[in-house]
Fold this protein.
Amino acid sequence: MKMLNNVDIKNILHEDFNKVVSLKTIYKYSDFDSALNKILVENTLKFSKPSEYNDPFDCHESLINLKSTDKIVHETLMSSETGVILTRKDRRKIIREISLGTNTASILTKEREKFKISCFAEKNDSVLMWGHYADKHQGMCIGFEFPPIYDKKFMICPVKYIEKIIPFDGSSDATRTILYWLTTKSMTWKYEKEIRAILKTENKSSFELVTINPQTVKEVIFGCRVSESRIEKTIKTIKRSHREYSKISFKRMIINPDNFSLKEIILKPGT
């Protein structure tokens, strides 16, 4: 799968690209078993279709103004600046469908279905995120370090949050259109401070597991409701699973008694 290069991403995401580059670590909240077995031991990330997520407006058609002429879309697709979210083969196929009279909106919607998403966050100390996505503080939060494009498999993009729906001009650029579709959400979700890993695939299933290098894992943080005995046992299991994990920073969250917040403590060897 051919992906965008750094220049392409910068041109599309502008200032948001700088956010991706400046974020050294991004975090995935998860239930305990999935974090341990799927992510840490098997080294896989789950990518799902947007329709599988809990926001009904995720990648909704209302975000895009698809009332554009086929001529404009044709010119956009022929441009070398379209990038590689849509490959040359993709563009030829879409242009052929347009020439046969296929509706432009249905074409772009069909392309959108080829993308799957894995969700991360900027911060590891969100009480709400721990409650919603890490089994009510009984799970883990795993810190990763990825480049903007990881091993030609997926790209990292920040989510944009907007107050009201202002449809994006779907005729301006096919690549921008699809990325806008995949990375724009309501301000309601801003507390998540979400970062998305975006995968393009021909796999038609609702999700796909992607193998990652264990060296991308930099931190493992246990929820404030995970017992000390389980933490100790799990750290031993993690360290045994891959030699690359010898340098992982292990932490746990504790309740801050002074306010409604969490704070992390570093777990020393032998904890």
User: Anything to note?
Assistant: Residues 6-266 form one domain. The longest helix spans residues 228-241.
